[in-house]
Amino acid sequence: MIKILLINLGCKISIFKLLIKNNYFIYEFNKNNNISIILKINGVFISNGPGNPLNYKKKFYLILFFMFIKIPILSICLGYQIISILNKYNFYKLKNGHHGVNHPIINKNNKKLIINSQNHNFNIKKKKKNYNNSFYSLFDNTLQNINSLIQPLIGFQNHPEGCSGPNDFINIFNYYNKIYE
């Protein structure tokens, strides 16, 4: 069982259910956590949530700490935007936000199409050195993932749904589990 620390920025119940279904033991970060929790975990999950990623600057130092000690990090949606900013990607507000279900994403590495749900108004700029960015929106060619080649860190713009809606991307946790192999 992989023990993860959840940095909850507005996580949906369906995401909790998916984490448990994928055999993760969840410690939720709060101001009362102490170092003993950090010593127990194998990884960090940064959740989705509402709004502008710059409104969460208080969490930046915590996330930078985990990046510094090279603990595996998985992030989705807002969490993805935050780790992208911390990895020196430029971010911007989309002219038209991505909201709802049935968003087509292409994995340019294997040409596989994935249908997912999204709910965001911000995104990050294209590819950087030392990162494998292979997922792109077929609506507007916006970048949809970050995968560091120098530290155990991945993030996806979309939501792996555990309830109604598309669930092509439920296997997001397989990408994260490969960090441990």
TrEMBL record:
InterPro entries reported for this sequence: Anth_synth/Amidotransfase, Class_I_gatase-like, GATASE
Catalytic reaction annotation: hydrogencarbonate + L-glutamine + 2 ATP + H2O = carbamoyl phosphate + L-glutamate + 2 ADP + phosphate + 2 H(+)
Keywords in UniProt for this one?
Glutamine amidotransferase, Membrane, Transmembrane, Transmembrane helix
Query: GO molecular function of the protein, one example?
Result: carbamoyl-phosphate synthase (glutamine-hydrolyzing) activity
Report if keyword Membrane is assigned. yes
A Pfam family this chain is assigned to: GATase
Q: Which stretches are transmembrane?
A: 60-83
| Enzyme class, spelled out | ligase
Pathway membership: Amino-acid biosynthesis; L-arginine biosynthesis; carbamoyl phosphate from bicarbonate: step 1/1
| EC nos | 6.3.5.5
- Which stretches make up the Glutamine amidotransferase domain? 17-175
- Similarity comment: family membership: Belongs to the CarA family.
Q: What PANTHER family does its record include?
A: CARBAMOYL-PHOSPHATE SYNTHASE SMALL CHAIN (PTHR43418:SF7), MULTIFUNCTIONAL TRYPTOPHAN BIOSYNTHESIS PROTEIN-RELATED (PTHR43418)
The name of this protein is: carbamoyl-phosphate synthase (glutamine-hydrolyzing)
Q: What is the lineage of its organism?
A: Bacteria, Pseudomonadati, Pseudomonadota, Gammaproteobacteria, Oceanospirillales
